[in-house]
């Protein structure tokens, strides 16, 4: 039985959304629906137009016999700004203040809806940077790395501060913790988890002194890989000179006053690069 | 300008996929596309049919003025069995053997494509169990919890073995580690992260003695919440009596021989319940 255009459009949409950054051939769709390549081409034109108009993303079409389509998650600038504002509104609550000026964020990083938004925003930003892997440090960064990696469709790797026997052999480095105490700490990564020459994106929840990000940078060098960029959810207040400068932060915690229980979160430097 | 049916079908598909287990009203779609509710109803019928035929999931339609549609990720039995077989094939490699009979799994748990499959399979299984939260223990379980929670569209919570200042106040319990050493260990969960009365699904990577799952069970009781089920990726070889019995495992590591470097992974008890 021949598959109708309406059904093809629904299935193509689902298929492309589940395979971001992947070239899917006309031949594949043509066989899947027992339809002529010319019909599939027309389908893809409709999908492309709708994805673009609705801010779902870009459909790149590759012409010719070996051609096909690739879905690239890309958000509209105003949608990204909208989400960053939503994040500010969500964090600007005094109940989120923790002792020491920390901000409670764990609930957000456990909500699929927030993670989808954060993942799409950051993946959008790096869409044409040919990222091979997303890196983060356990535990808080993991959901962010997974969300971003899902939209970039690349693996994510988790750096740990403690070793586990189930990791196999690891490479470890020492780094200076960015906090005022200037402690030397250790972080390590499973040897199998990152290929030489990989182009790596670092993500994390908070940035204070930058020590952790710097540690990951050294680790990337140990693996003969390349750091492409670093993006955090929020840059925290930090008295002193940060040990890194080339990062972007979706948000900036502008002021925290534990005594009067006030907090002010504003959009970070990320939006300046949109 | 009026939106064509073809464009509506694409956008409805995207919207429903991004909002699983959520009732989206006819009114919402009707306004979004400036189209009559009767047209939207027809659209949803086409989406429903295609989702069902392609094994994408169920579209539940709620009739009436306050009606709408809800997308529930549900896979076909044969697709689930196919994925479990793929998982077996992927793990049945001697290079995955680690000292002590452990199996290297970290790469898989860092690949969005595997996580999507695992997430859909487990979320499918619990689709009508009214889960309120997914629980796991740091660090290995986190990607699994996030993948499952994404398809169930509920929050996930991370139990930790070490405390962090950024968690706020926590509830902790002591539990007997299932390993042969029978050590007493501690695990804790941020007080804010789980609501009283929540129906909780536990997920994790490996099950050996069951001590960790049992610890989480005690923690769930501390929060006056309810354990609905526990599912792990693989149940490991265990000499002795397990401290839990009501769990499902996608896979079973049937034999591991470190000397001859052989490993045998077979489908677990999960498939018996499909």
UniProtKB/TrEMBL annotation, chains A, B:
It comes from Marinilactibacillus piezotolerans. Residues 112-254 form the Phosphoribosyltransferase domain. It holds the Pfam family Pribosyltran. NCBIfam families: purR_Bsub (TIGR01743). GO terms for biological process: negative regulation of DNA-templated transcription; negative regulation of purine nucleobase metabolic process. CDD domains: PRTases_typeI. Belongs to the purine/pyrimidine phosphoribosyltransferase family. PurR subfamily. This is Purine operon repressor, PurR. Keywords: DNA-binding, Transcription, Transcription regulation. Residues 4-73 form the Bacterial purine repressor N-terminal domain. GO terms for molecular function: DNA binding. Homodimer.
């Amino acid at each position: 039985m021949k598959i109708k255009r309406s059904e093809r459009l629904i299935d193509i949409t689902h298929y492309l959304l589940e395979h971001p950054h992947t070239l899917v051939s006309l031949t594949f769709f043509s066989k899947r629906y027992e339809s002529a390549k010319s019909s599939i081409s027309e389908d893809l034109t409709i999908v492309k137009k709708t994805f673009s108009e609705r801010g779902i993303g870009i459909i790149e079409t590759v012409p010719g016999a070996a051609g096909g389509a690739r879905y690239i998650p890309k958000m509209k600038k105003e949608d990204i700004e909208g989400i960053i504002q939503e994040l500010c509104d969500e964090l600007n609550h005094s109940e989120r203040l923790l002792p020491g000026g920390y901000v409670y964020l764990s609930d957000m990083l456990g909500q699929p809806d927030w993670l989808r938004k954060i993942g799409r925003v950051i993946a959008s930003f790096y869409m044409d940077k040919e990222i091979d892997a997303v890196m983060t440090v356990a535990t808080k960064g993991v959901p962010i790395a997974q969300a971003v990696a899902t939209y970039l469709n690349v693996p994510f790797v988790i750096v740990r501060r403690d070793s586990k026997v189930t990791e196999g052999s690891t490479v470890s480095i020492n780094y200076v913790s960015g906090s005022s105490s200037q402690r030397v700490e250790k972080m390590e990564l499973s040897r199998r988890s990152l290929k030489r020459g990989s182009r790596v994106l670092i993500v994390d929840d908070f940035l204070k002194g930058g020590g952790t990000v710097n540690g990951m940078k050294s680790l990337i060098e140990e693996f003969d890989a390349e750091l492409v960029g670093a993006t955090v959810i929020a840059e925290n207040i930090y008295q002193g000179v940060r040990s890194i400068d080339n990062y972007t932060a979706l948000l900036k915690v502008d002021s925290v006053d534990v005594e009067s229980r006030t907090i002010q979160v504003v959009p970070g430097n990320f939006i300046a690069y949109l």
